[in-house]
Design brief:
The chain is α/β, with parallel strands linked by helices and 533 residues long. 36% of the residues lie in helices and 22% in strands. The longest helix has 18 residues. The protein binds glutamine.
Length: 533
């Protein structure tokens, strides 16, 4: 395609309407038509990246292949498009300012006064266009975080206005709003939508397409009214009714020809409607599954809906590919003890030990691991979960009482998990962990190899501590094998107990690479083992 097309997605009325899912779904529809699509997220906060935010603030921190700590929406983009994102796909206000200030210090602005307009807006536009010019995408979909009218998103909205003005047909704005149902009046109300569109218009932007989030289907007269009052063509008002799974949203939009409207508005030929075979097959399997698989996820952020987003989605995908409904139980690690663990985990088919940082809730993870190990329950430990498997084994099998990670106890007599050498002098907390994709060689014949069906894999990391190789022989002799290592550094990436049916800990995060059409093999294998139990 000659020119890259830019689509901005904004939100109005309230936050949490699912701009990420709408962006990913539209991206999917365009991709299904053969276009090269990428999705980018702008976050208006001042943190340089979300890596230093705790899960209470911002849900899960997603990690890209190139080691960027990113907003969790990038996880949705990858799960939908099955194409990796990079640090260019997630930009914050902090990063924009950081780069402008660095340029100013270098003298790049030649003595000019550096201002929000044009310098900040130029930097924002540069980051949007970069995906088109450098990475040669046909479509760049840019989701602007927050809600229209927020003070902090103004520079992003202004940049979108300028880009629209400069690019003509090559740039459109999709605005997502909410249409609430007022029970007392028995009516759906469009006024909040009208107001939020007005707010955009005041900022110089006429949205091209409106997506209305609603709990129940809206009647045609409501859609017509919105079109009339918001200055949008009738066929460009799309409704997004709540559906049982986010993976149905692309089909909801396709049925209303949203992709066709986009193509027409941008002067592109429409062509035949794509089949989306793999996608539909996945949804069909989901509908057909009747039996359930019961999985416990043991972590300390279980009350937060988004803290383990990628793990939840990976388990769901793995369950569906095993033709099962996922019955996921979030178990608070702080509430688990040796005394109650059998009651709580007894009827689970499999147990996942979550990643994390710090001491809180760790004893409960040990209790869950001990229970899984002694009762031969399929168990998957991820990152801190894997480190806990190692510590539990050291304490209860190797007899190394008080063995620990130096993250939890600096003066432990047995540092079975220790700070990586290159981490010892790190003082700057942002973006300084071992981040991104690294190679791992799996031992032939191991359970991990069986799962991946290959020797060389790559998975993403986000940690500072590692298995201490000084103890490796001791562990292996006692029955915990190091079945995956980094071929360059010899760092242990996978541990497992071959004697048990399925007991694997991984230092990496397999959940970041699981997508709808390509589920992560480790999760698929884990869920399969849980079913066979
Ligand atoms: N806190 C551990 C480390 O830094 C594990 C991190 C994680 O689970 N992501 O090594």
């Amino acid at each position: 395609m000659a020119d890259t097309k830019y689509i901005f997605v904004t939100g109005g009325v309230v936050s949490s309407l699912g701009k990420g899912i709408i962006s990913a779904s539209l991206g999917k529809l365009l991709q299904a038509r053969g276009y090269k699509v990428t999705i980018q997220k702008f976050d208006p906060y001042i943190n340089v990246d979300p890596g230093t935010l705790n899960p209470y603030e911002h849900g899960e921190c997603y990690v890209t292949v190139d080691g960027h700590e990113a907003d969790l929406d990038l996880g949705h983009y990858e799960r939908f498009l099955n194409v990796p994102t990079t640090r260019a796909n997630n930009i914050t206000t902090g990063r924009i300012y950081q780069s402008v200030i660095e340029k100013e210090r270098k003298g790049d602005y030649l003595g000019k006064t550096v201002q929000v307009v044009p310098h900040i807006t130029d930097e924002i536009k540069r980051n949007v266009k970069l995906l088109g010019t450098k990475y040669k995408y046909d479509f760049v979909i840019t989701e602007i975080g927050g809600t229209v009218g927020d003070i902090e998103s103004l520079p992003f909205i202004e940049s979108m206005r300028q880009l629209k003005w400069e690019s003509g047909k090559n740039c459109i704005c999709v605005h997502l709003t909410y249409v609430p149902y007022i029970a007392a009046a028995k009516e759906y109300k469009t006024k909040p939508t009208q107001h939020s569109v007005k707010q955009l218009q005041e900022l110089g932007i006429q949205p091209d397409i409106l997506v209305l989030r609603t709990e129940q289907p809206l009647k045609a007269d409501i859609l017509r009214k919105v079109a009339l009052f918001c200055n949008v063509a009738e066929d460009a008002v799309v409704q997004s009714v709540d559906v049982p799974t986010i993976y149905e949203v692309p089909l909801v939009l396709q049925r209303q020809h949203m992709d066709v409207t986009v193509l027409k508005k941008m002067g592109l030929e429409v062509g035949p409607t794509p089949e989306m075979k793999a996608w539909n097959e996945f949804l069909q399997r989901k509908v057909n599954a009747t039996d359930t698989v019961k999985i416990a996820l043991v972590g300390k952020y279980v009350e937060l809906q988004d803290a383990y987003k990628s793990i939840d989605e990976s388990l769901l995908q793995a369950a569906i590919y095993n033709d099962r409904k996922l019955d996921l139980h979030m178990i608070h690690s702080e509430k688990l003890t040796d005394a109650n663990v059998a009651d709580i985990l007894g009827d689970m088919d499999g147990i996942v030990i979550a990643p994390g940082f710090g001491q809180r809730g760790i004893e409960g993870k040990f209790a869950a691991i001990k229970y899984a190990r002694e009762n031969n329950k399929p168990c998957l430990g991820i990152c801190l979960g894997m480190q806990c498997m190692v510590i539990e084994f050291a304490r209860n099998i190797l007899g190394l009482t008080d063995a620990n990670s130096t993250e939890m106890e600096l003066n432990t007599p047995y540092k079975v998990i220790d700070l990586m050498e290159e981490q010892k002098n790190v003082t700057n907390m942002g973006g300084s962990m071992r981040l991104g994709a690294y190679d791992c060689s799996l031992q032939k014949g191991s359970k991990a190899y069986e799962a991946y069906q290959k020797e060389h894999i790559q998975e993403r990391h986000r940690h500072r501590f590692e298995f201490n190789n000084e103890y490796r022989q001791q562990f292996e002799e006692a029955g915990m094998k190091c079945s995956g290592v980094n071929p360059e550094t010899n760092l242990v990436e996978v541990v497992e107990i071959p004697e048990l049916d399925w007991f694997i800990g991984v230092q990496f995060h397999p959940e970041y690479s699981s997508t709808v059409v390509s589920p992560n093999p480790l999760f698929v294998s884990f869920v399969k083992a849980a079913i066979n139990k």
